[in-house]
Amino acid sequence: MTTRFFKSLFSIATLVFVSCATTGFQSLKNEDIVTSYIKARNTYDLKKVDALTDKDYFEMFIDGNKEIENKEKLMDAILWGKELDSHIKLLDITSDGTTVTTIEENSNYLDVALKRKVRAFKIVYTFRDNKIHHQKMDTIPGYAKIIRHNSESYAKFMDYCNHNNLKCNGSFDQESGNRLRKILKKYHKENK
Predict the structure, then answer these.
(1) 114 and 184 Cβ atoms separated by less than 8 Å
(2) 98-113: average pLDDT
(3) CA distance linking residue 185 with residue 84, whole number of Å
(4) What does residue 86 show for φ and ψ, rounded to 5 degrees?
(5) Nearest Cα residue to 186 out of 157, 162, 159
(6) pTM, whole model, 2 decimals?
(7) pLDDT-based confidence at 21, cuts 50/70/90?
(8) What does the alpha-carbon distance between residue 174 and residue 167 come to, in Å, rounded to a whole number?
(9) How are beta strands 87-95 and 66-68 bridged, if at all?
(10) What is the C-alpha separation between 33 and 183, in angstroms, rounded?
């Protein structure tokens, strides 16, 4: 009876160890995917982003509103971001084996030109077949104060655009990003 008990105990311990090792390995793999994805976003590497994301990729806020509806819109957003020197700074990353949670700061030329404060978000990445399937974004403490300041800065910029009959809004694509960059440079120069 003692031998059978120890064999059973050993089998259970082995199973737990293998399970933990597998979960730990998957956690590290998923974290690597996310860090590679952020690096590819920061270098505007569409090919790499495409390889790291699922065909049904999307981004949404915690309330269910979609920020980026599909992979095509993601590629457009990256090209828009390229025109505006968008950058993601990874502040923290953790994983539980099935999801990766990050704290990320997002900045771009809008922040420079409008003297806005950098925004940070908690983002939960979910995976399908070793690719990022979607992101769910949430705010972190202090966000309301930052967004209030940024909204005031953006409202002043919109007044400037309206007063000067400048079209600064448009699609979330490279052409709109290019046009917005030119307007922002003019605004920044005039409002130093």
Answers:
(1) yes
(2) 95
(3) 11
(4) -65, 145
(5) 157
(6) 0.83
(7) very low
(8) 15
(9) unpaired
(10) 36
- Going by the DSSP 8-state scheme, the letter that residue 98 receives in this structure is S
Q: What pLDDT shows up at residue 192?
A: 77
Residue type for position 47: K
Provide, rounded to the nearest whole percent, the portion of the chain with pLDDT above 90.
76
Q: Give CA torsion, residues 93, 119, 106, 57, to 10 deg.
A: 70
In sequence order, which residues have a C-beta less than 8 Å from that of residue 126 and are 6 or more positions away? Answer: 98, 99, 132, 133, 134, 135, 136
Cross-strand bridge partners of residue 102: 93, 123
The residue among 153, 111, 132, 143 whose CA lies nearest residue 68 is 132
Q: Quick one: pLDDT at residue 15? A: 47
Helix residue spans in the chain (DSSP H): 2-42, 46-52, 71-83, 109-114, 143-163, 174-190
169: phi > 0 → left, psi -120 to 50 → alpha, else beta; which? beta
Based on the number of CB atoms within 10 Å of its own CB, is 83 exposed (0-12), middle (13-18) or buried (19 or more)?
buried
Distance CA(106)–CA(87), nearest Å, equals 6
Q: In which band, very low, low, confident or very high, does the pLDDT at 158 lie, cut at 50, 70 and 90?
A: very high
Q: Which domains does the chain have, with CATH numbers?
A: 2-190 (3.10.450.50)
Look at residue 4 and tell me whether its pLDDT is greater than 70. no
Q: What does the pLDDT average to over 53-75?
A: 95
Mean pLDDT, range 100-108, rounded to an integer: 96
Roughly what angle, to the nearest 10 degrees, separates helices 174-190 and 71-83?
30
